[in-house]
Amino acid sequence: MPRDGAIVFGDLIGKLDDLRVSCDKCGRSGRYQVQRLIRDRGRDCKIVDWLDQITADCPKKATVSWNDRCAARCPDLPRVL
Predict the structure, then answer these.
(1) What is the pTM of this model?
(2) Which residue from 39, 40, 45 is spatially nearest to 11, judged by alpha carbons?
């Protein structure tokens, strides 16, 4: 799978043990073990694609207002990459 400049789970090896996900709009929050994500999804899985998958059921994902849309993100990524 081409990276297209995307961050993949393999980029997190040795940098993070857990990947946090949070959203101020919908209140989603969670912590995922990086090694488990790599085992289940592969080291080349793009984090942006994974975020789209885990937030697919969010009611705020398809809201009409851009200001109220789900904004799930991984707050630890900017510090480690």
Answers:
(1) 0.85
(2) 45
Q: Are 60 and 42 in contact (CB under 8 A)?
A: no
Q: How far is CA 28 from CA 31, 39, 44, 51, 77, in A?
A: 11, 23, 25, 12, 17
Instruction: Specify whether the CB–CB gap between 59 and 23 falls below 8 A.
Output: no
Nearest partner of 77 among 20, 33, 2, judged by Cα:
20
Amino acid identity for residue 77 in this structure: L
pLDDT in tens, 30-64: 999 999 999 999 999 999 999 999 999 988 887 77
